[in-house]
Every structure is written in structure tokens, then in C-alpha cells.
Design a protein that fits this description.
Number of domains of chain A: 2
Structural class of chain B: alpha+beta
Helix content of chain B: 40-55%
CATH class of the largest domain in chain A: Mainly Beta
Shape of chain B: globular
CATH architecture of the largest domain in chain A: Roll
Largest interface: A-B, 38 and 43 residues
Shape of chain A: elongated
CATH superfamily of the largest domain in chain A: Pleckstrin-homology domain (PH domain)/Phosphotyrosine-binding domain (PTB)
Number of strands of chain A: 7
Strand order of the largest sheet of chain B: 6-5-4-10-9-8-7
Oligomer: heterodimer
Chain lengths: 176, 490
């Protein structure tokens, strides 16, 4: 690698994100995702069925087969991608920042320093609540909606984290 | 009468200027007209003679209603200072009270439309920070009062970045002459304008169609019988001509009388032919500095400079101020207020990996081509394969993009130079960083490459296809810079 910076900052001594150990999110979250997928697939199935019922052109065996197969393939593909994506979901909390990794086709590592967090919230949908899971959302002033959001945390863990981060944020402010 | 510009003088609820009634009348009338103009057209063109009489009565009725509405609006509007709050009370049917903490006022802008100028009044716009939706406007007060109130409000704000006195403004740094405007207009992006003109004509046709039904379509169908090659060329030239004209007109309307001056803690930008707008941009609120030129402008040395301020959560409106720059020297001059250009002084310069062009050709090039060919195959049969030219376009574009892309890194800032035909340079100080993303597709993971996106509170910088080691170095350094510094980003 080319020389990166020509100054006295000891680049080798900086904390390294590539060596940070990431913690996996709760496996229960995969169940939540699968149930959600089942529901959405069922909805698509119903819509297809209604379309076939009302549109005479589609009532030929060939169309029905095509629709059925594409529905099945799409659902399976989603199932596969979901599993792959889930296995990438992991997070790490470091001294001064928080990391969250997600995605399989495109893996994204989002990182946010505590001293840039404006506020945070803990959300949980009806399915997540069933499994006692929550999503921690951290808002910065940054552009896009790509704030850091970490799903699949145990509810108590999410709240504890939120509180801990809030404390951090306040501390950072006082130092600043 | 000498009015003391203290808190006390503003605690009494005030009304707007009476001449402002004309403004309200105009505003209400415009909203009404915008809503019902197709109806008018129908009545005028289709109506029989006796219905025209009725129509006149309707018109008078509407006028009276509009007048009444504006008067009531005027009567019920009050603004005053209560304690540490600016209170604005308004609304005829739905009463509304805005209370804005004086501390949260970020800026006060004075705007004057042509009508305002004639009436010697001004519109006061109050910018606030905070996540709640609070946009305060006082539509019509006398210019003197506006200036005074502005002085008062900005004097209250703890934010010292706001200007307290207008006397300290030095002569404008950038001023545009008529010649500059024409140069800018002639070199602007005519293709973009072409599409705007096209979209406009299409939507106009739609409106006509709504009113007249099939007649328009029938007429067009009839006329298309004489649609020869000649007609196509003539129409094309006409649209092109209109586009160039519209481009120039847009520039003139936008940048007429353009002036940028430096005030103690920020830039003051004012411009406008019909509406005079004025913005104050505190230096420390500038998140990202960028300047760019299309191919034509690059050749003649014209740049558009942009400084982005924090996006406001509430309105989602982007706070971007664009400054046309006619001389290269100005860029460096303006940059001194943010951070100097680091192209010459950077500690290291990096490029994107050459494989970028090939990968861009595959994704999104290949799937898009396949889909296009499949869609058009039934009509064009094997001729549909001509769509594979898209692969070439993707490749060439991406090749030049990666050829000209440069990343400069220095201790205090990071800069990116990019562009296929034109050029865009984006400069960010490390302390403006909010959060970042490190992206890797499956291929990038296998080839140890990555894409980094650095987000500020206004705009972001994207660095595609660099080595993973470099990406990690950038990220680690970015975190180090944001976490060790106590320098605020705003």
C-alpha cells in the first residue's frame, strides 16, 4: 500500500475495524424474518389466485404452471437470500463507536461514532415482541435514511444498550 | 420616532403591514387560480353566451371570497416576543400558534418578490433548528421593521455565527455581469433543459386532453399523416432552440443581480430577478464543499460551487447554496473559509482499481442488456441485439470514470475528483463526518476490494472500488479523527 499519511499519527496503533470481533444477533430474529416471508409469500399467492380466478386468459394450464413455478422460485430465492443475509448480521460496540454489519449480496459495514449520535430509539414490531426482540436505531445528523439500525437484539439488551449509549453520548458532549 | 430595539418593543403583538393585504390577495388568488384554471378554460371555450354571464357572477363571487379570506388572514395574524419565545398566531378557521424558542433560531432571511419591492415591504423567514416542524414566515412587514426585527432576533441567538450588524459587510466578492449570465446560460446543460421542456409539453398535452377529451388526440393523429422527416427535423430544431432559450432564461431569473459577500462569520448570498432572495451561510455550518463543471463549462472555465448545510429533518429540504464561479481564482478564495484545496498538498493520492470498468459492464450492464433484448425481441427479433451497445457505453463510461477518478487524503481533509466528461470535486473536512459505510459485493469480497461512503450532515462522498486495505485505513483514520477531536461539526 502506498503511504497513507505523512504525519506523526501512529496509523498502526489506531484501533482497527478489521480486527474487531463482531457479535451475532439473536437466532430468533431469523425466525421472525421467516414468518414475515411466509406471510408476504402467502399474500402474493392470494393475489395470484385472485388474478387467475378473475382473468379468463390466465386460466390456461400453461399460465397457471408458469405463475406457480415463478412464485415458488421467488419464495425459495428469498428464503435462501434471507438466510445468507442473516448470517452476515453482526454488531460490535467499541469504546467510542458502534459497528453493524449486514447483507450478503452486498455486505455493508456501518459505523457510527458515539459523539455523532443525536438520539436513539428501541422499536419492536408485533412479531418481534413475540420473540422478545427489539431493534435499536441510532440517528445521526447524516444524510440518507442509512442511520445505524440493529435488529434482533434481546429486548432487555437493546434497552440496556440504548441507555449505555445515551450515557456515552452525554459524556462525549460534556467532554466536548 | 425613535424605536428602541430591545425586547420590550417587540412584546406587543404586532400585525403585518397593511399594504401587505395586496400580497395576501395575490397569494390567495394564485392558489385559487392554480386549482381551477382548467375549469375556466372549459367554460370560456365551450360555454354558450348566457352561461358566460353566470360565469362572470361566479368570478365576482370568487374574488370577494378571496378578498375576504385575505383580510381575515391579515386580521388574525400576530407576532410578538413572549419571554424567550417568538410567538406567531395565525389561522382563520384553524387557529394556530407557533412558539419558537429564540435560542433555536438559526437564521433569519429577508426575501422580496417584485411585488414586495414595489410595495416597499419584505418577507421574513425564520429558520430554526430542531426536529419539530417549525417554519415561521412573516409574509409582509415594512423593510425597516424587517431589518430591525432581524437584528433583534439574530442578536438573541446564542449562535455568534449570525451577523449582528450589517455595516461590517465588505464589498461583494463575486458579482455576475450580464455577460457572465449569458456565458452561464449558453454553457448550461441543454440536454437536461430539453427533457424539462419535453416533460412540460407532455404534461401540457395531458391537461389539454383532460379538458377536450379525444379531440387533441384525433388532431394529433391527423397531423401525424404529414409527419415527414422534414417535420421531425424542424420540430427537433425548434425544441432545441427553445431549450437553449429556456436555459438562458432560467439562469438569468435565478442569478440576476447575483452577489456573494463575506460577512464576519459567514457568506451572504443574494440573487434573483423576480424574487430577491438572501441567504446567510455561517462558515461553520458548511458540511461539504464541492465544485463542478460540465464538459462545455470546463473548457471555458466556469464552475458551479456548492456548499451544503445540514439537512433539516423536519422539512427534508436540502440546504444547498449554489454559486456560479466565473474565475478559477474565486474557488480558492472561497475555500479559505472551509479548508484549502488539497490536490497539491495531499499526503497521499489514490485511484480506483482498473477492474472497475469491467465490473460496471457486468453489473448493471449485463442484466439491463439482457432484459432490454428480451423485452424488445418480439418486435425487433435479432435486431434487438443492438441493445448490447449498452454494454459498450457502460464500459467506456466506467473506464473514463476510473481513469479520471482521484482520491486525495490529508491530515485534515479528504477530497475526491471525479467525472466522465465533466468534473466534480468534493472536499470534506474529517471533523464533518457523521457516519460511514463500507460496502463489499460478493465479487469485491473475493477480490479484496471495497466501496466506502462517508456521510456528513449535508452530502456524502463515495469512493468506489479501492483495495480493502486502503478502505480500512480510511475508515480507521476517519474514526480516529472524529473521535479524538472535540471540534464540533456545526
Amino acid at each position: 500500500m502506498m503511504e497513507f499519511l505523512n504525519n506523526s499519527v501512529p496509523l498502526d496503533l489506531l484501533p482497527k475495524i478489521e480486527h474487531t470481533e463482531l457479535k451475532k444477533i439473536s437466532p430468533d430474529y431469523l425466525k421472525v424474518l421467516r414468518i414475515e416471508l411466509m406471510i408476504s409469500s402467502a399474500v402474493v399467492f392470494l393475489i395470484a389466485a385472485v388474478l387467475i380466478f378473475f382473468i379468463a386468459v390466465l386460466q390456461k394450464p400453461i399460465w397457471i404452471t408458469v405463475i406457480a413455478i415463478s412464485w415458488l422460485l421467488l419464495s425459495l430465492l428469498q428464503y435462501f437470500l434471507q438466510q445468507k443475509a442473516f448470517s452476515a448480521c453482526a454488531y460490535a460496540i467499541r469504546d467510542k463507536d458502534i459497528l453493524y454489519q449486514s447483507g450478503w449480496l452486498i455486505r455493508i459495514l456501518r459505523t457510527c461514532p458515539f459523539n455523532r449520535i443525536q438520539h436513539s430509539s428501541v422499536n419492536s414490531g408485533p412479531l418481534e415482541r413475540k420473540f422478545n426482540l427489539s431493534t435499536l436505531i441510532l440517528y445521526t445528523a447524516g444524510t440518507d435514511a442509512s442511520d445505524v439500525r440493529i435488529p434482533g437484539l434481546q429486548e432487555s439488551e437493546a434497552i440496556a444498550l440504548k441507555e449505555w449509549i445515551n450515557k456515552k453520548v452525554v459524556d462525549e458532549e460534556q467532554q466536548g | 420616532m425613535l424605536m428602541k430595539n430591545s425586547k420590550d418593543s417587540w412584546t406587543i403583538p404586532q400585525q403585518q403591514a397593511v399594504v401587505g393585504l395586496i400580497i395576501f390577495f395575490y397569494k390567495t388568488a394564485i392558489t385559487v387560480i392554480k386549482g381551477v384554471w382548467p375549469l375556466f378554460v372549459v367554460v370560456i371555450l365551450r360555454g354558450k353566451s348566457n352561461s358566460k354571464n353566470e360565469f362572470l357572477w361566479v368570478l365576482i363571487g370568487i374574488t370577494i371570497l378571496v378578498l375576504l379570506r385575505s383580510i381575515l388572514g391579515f386580521i388574525f395574524f400576530r407576532f410578538y416576543i413572549d419571554g424567550n419565545f417568538l410567538i406567531i398566531r395565525k389561522g382563520v378557521f384553524k387557529r394556530q400558534t407557533l412558539s419558537i424558542p429564540l435560542k433555536s433560531i438559526q437564521g433569519v432571511n429577508i426575501e422580496q418578490s417584485l411585488l414586495h419591492q414595489v410595495l416597499n415591504i419584505a418577507k421574513l423567514k425564520i429558520d430554526t433548528a430542531g426536529s419539530e416542524k417549525m417554519e415561521a414566515e412573516i409574509d409582509a412587514i415594512s423593510v425597516r421593521k424587517a431589518e430591525k426585527f432581524k437584528d433583534f432576533l439574530t442578536g438573541q441567538a446564542p449562535d455568534t455565527s449570525l451577523v449582528k450588524s450589517t455595516q461590517m459587510i465588505s464589498p461583494p466578492l463575486i458579482k455576475l455581469s450580464v455577460l457572465d449570465l449569458i456565458r452561464l446560460g449558453a454553457t448550461s446543460n441543454h440536454i437536461q433543459t430539453f427533457f424539462i421542456v419535453l416533460a412540460f409539453s407532455v404534461s401540457f398535452l395531458h391537461k389539454l386532453e383532460e379538458i377536450f377529451g379525444d379531440e387533441v388526440i384525433n388532431y394529433l393523429k391527423k397531423s401525424s399523416t404529414w409527419l415527414s422527416m422534414k417535420a421531425v427535423i424542424v420540430t427537433g430544431l425548434a425544441v432545441l432552440f427553445v431549450s437553449v432559450f429556456v436555459s438562458i432564461a432560467r439562469i438569468v431569473i435565478r442569478y440576476f443581480n447575483f452577489e456573494l459577500s463575506e460577512i464576519p462569520n459567514g457568506f451572504r448570498v443574494r440573487s434573483g430577478l423576480v424574487n430577491t432572495k438572501q441567504y446567510l451561510v455561517p462558515y461553520k455550518k458548511i458540511q461539504l464543499f464541492s465544485w463542478k463543471a460540465n464538459w462545455l463549462r470546463r473548457k471555458v472555465g466556469l464552475y458551479t460551487l456548492e456548499f451544503q448545510q445540514p439537512n433539516r429533518e423536519a422539512t427534508g429540504r436540502k440546504q444547498r447554496i449554489k454559486v456560479p464561479v466565473t474565475r478559477q481564482y474565486f474557488i480558492g478564495r472561497l475555500l479559505t473559509r472551509y479548508h484549502d484545496d488539497i490536490q497539491q498538498t495531499a499526503d497521499s493520492v489514490h485511484r480506483i482499481q482498473p477492474v472497475y470498468a469491467f465490473r460496471r459492464m457486468l453489473i448493471p450492464g449485463l442484466p439491463v442488456t439482457v432484459v432490454l433484448v428480451l423485452i424488445f425481441f418480439p418486435w425487433l427479433s435479432w435486431n434487438a441485439l443492438y441493445f448490447s451497445g449498452y454494454l459498450m457505453i457502460q464500459f467506456v463510461n466506467a473506464y473514463f470514470f476510473s481513469k479520471y477518478f482521484r482520491l486525495y487524503i490529508s491530515e485534515k481533509a479528504i477530497e475526491v475528483k471525479q467525472g466522465i466528461w465533466g468534473r466534480e470535486i468534493r472536499l470534506m473536512c474529517w471533523n464533518k463526518l457523521q457516519h460511514f459505510e463500507l460496502k463489499q459485493s460478493i465479487y469485491q469480497r473475493s477480490a479484496n476490494l471495497a466501496t466506502v461512503i462517508l456521510h456528513t450532515a449535508g452530502g456524502s462522498i463515495k469512493i468506489p472500488f479501492i483495495t480493502l486495505t486502503l478502505a480500512h485505513a480510511i475508515c480507521n483514520y476517519a474514526l480516529y479523527k472524529t473521535e479524538e477531536s472535540t471540534k464540533s461539526w456545526m
